[in-house]
Amino acid sequence: MDIKRLEYFLSVAEHGSFSRAASVIGVAQPALGRQVQRLEESCGARLFYRHGRGVSLTPEGEAFRQRIQPLMRELASAMTGLADNDRAVTGLVRIGMTPTILSLLGLPLIQRLRARHPGLRLNFLSGYSGYVHEWLVDGRLDIAILHDARRSRHIGVDFLGEARLFLISARPPARLQRADMQTLAGLPLALPSATHGLRRTLEAAAARARVALKVEYELDDLDLMKAMAVTGAAHTVLALPAVAEELRSGSLHATPLGSPQLATRLMVATSVARPLTRAARSVAEELAPTLRDTLARSGMDLHIDPA
């Protein structure tokens, strides 16, 4: 069986569209369609449903994907290992992070990797978790750090750490040592939109407490969200690395949120359809030690528990 056809099949399954898969892997869409059709003929089964929104796997296609995906990863790993022996780590690695994590890890990770692997080139993309997840699935990233991500047919995840969440205010509610969800529900809030990890975590906690959040400003921009809090027009909820400078200057104040305190899990995510290159593996291996070293040197308790 043609290995290239298997790679094409996995790409179409990942992207749910012949056109998107063709764009990512760099082949003409008609040629991609013919190769997948020949694979279906070889298998003697229909692997995709074709519909107006793209394609989806048939039960036979899903069973086939589950069987060949780990084999393709092992094959790619074996070939990469043979090619990479005795060579310096080089190449471009594209990394996506939320603004909070980028502000914490971006510079230390660059410095650490430059010292260990000077031949690496790094491309950082920053956005809220929903966007970063989309970029990873679409093939624009090799590695992503996401909030509260779960393993799926598109991504694999590994635990990096846990960041506790705080109510962030210009003037915290009087004599409040810890905010609960009832307190949060009574405050005007500036939060990211519902597709993002932080918002999902807060909405789930509010549902458990049987309260509704009063989100007056949906802002998918960290700087604007912090600016709204500084003016006193709204409160927000963030992990401490996002507001470390504002806390030092006194322009914002942090109050622990929830009992036990709410937290977001930081997960390293990679695509299950695209095995990591040696360069990307080298970056992934440095994420946890970089986080631990950065926290140890931060000079303040950022309330993050590393893996």
From TrEMBL:
Query: Glycoprotein: present as a keyword of the record?
Result: no
Q: Which SUPFAM superfamilies match?
A: Periplasmic binding protein-like II (SSF53850), Winged helix' DNA-binding domain (SSF46785)
Which segments does the entry list as coiled coil? Answer: none
Alphabetized PROSITE patterns for the sequence: HTH_LYSR
InterPro entries xrefs: LysR_HTH_N, LysR_subst-bd, WH-like_DNA-bd_sf, WH_DNA-bd_sf
Q: Which GO terms describe its molecular function?
A: DNA binding; DNA-binding transcription factor activity
Cross-referenced Pfam families: HTH_1, LysR_substrate
Please list the residue ranges annotated as the HTH lysR-type domain. 1-58
Which key words are in the record? Activator, DNA-binding, Transcription, Transcription regulation
Q: Among the record's GO biological process terms, what is one?
A: regulation of DNA-templated transcription initiation
Secreted among keywords: no
Top-level taxon of the source organism: Bacteria
Q: Which PANTHER family match?
A: NITROGEN ASSIMILATION REGULATORY PROTEIN NAC, TRANSCRIPTIONAL REGULATORY PROTEIN NAC-RELATED
Annotated family: Belongs to the LysR transcriptional regulatory family.
Q: What name goes with this protein?
A: Cyn operon transcriptional activator
In its UniProt entry, the species of origin is given as Bordetella pseudohinzii
> What is the phylogenetic placement of the source species in the record?
Bacteria, Pseudomonadati, Pseudomonadota, Betaproteobacteria, Burkholderiales
Name the encoding gene, please.
cynR_13
